[in-house]
Amino acid sequence: MAQALGVRFLDSNGMELPFGGAAAVREHRWRRKTALMLTALGGALALETVRSTGFTLEIASILAGVTFAWIVVRPRALVVAVIAATFIGAAVLARPEVQLKAATTLVEAARLHRGNIWTPGHTYHLLDDRLYDELTEIRTMRLDEAGRFVARALVSYITVPLPNQIYSSAALAFLPEQIAWYVLVALAPVGLVFAMRRDVLITSLLLMHGVGAALPVALTSGNIGTLVRHRGFALPYLIWISAVGACELVARSRRTVTMQ
User: For 209-246, b where at least 16 C-beta lie within 10 A, e where not — what string?
Assistant: First the structure.
């Protein structure tokens, strides 16, 4: 992960050792830039051996992070990008083959979610009730049902398990971790703002890696225990961003107390 992102390490002499994507973007010497890009590529290939589609998610996250970092520091480019993305997205989605591909991807995610609902353990629902009938084909899911499915998936990824979803004393073991998770999520927006001020590129890479790790889990999970475990894929990125928020809030509160 560190090699792909480009997190900075120091050697025994305090000199920076650059790795991966972020360092490759910042490096101006082409030989070294190429070596760093190959390092990032090697890290992505290694991820494929640990997790299916790991290579695709890693490369997509790096490209999205670099693009986002370039746009976010250019207000005019950001406005143009939003407008262009709206029109291009509408034009692309108007094509039948693209609609079919998007629908197929979403239907497959819904099918995996429904399969997880039928596994042993405590579960939570994302689809409309009719789609849980064994005789109902997932591909009959309508556009409004798909929209509700995605919205519920994103909310549930953050909130599950809620207090009313803790069904046993054994499930109480999740409670400390869940409280820590809520704290990290609450600190994330604050941390994102301050982290962007410190290092736009690294923050953008962390953000896009977190999104890339979260979305597949959010859309396919249905078992509470499995969701809690699989949220760990996004947890390292969230911790980095949220920790910045926590440190900034503590520093500002200390300055306020000192001034008083």
Answer: bbbbbbbbbbbbbbbbbbbbebbebbbebbbbbbebbe
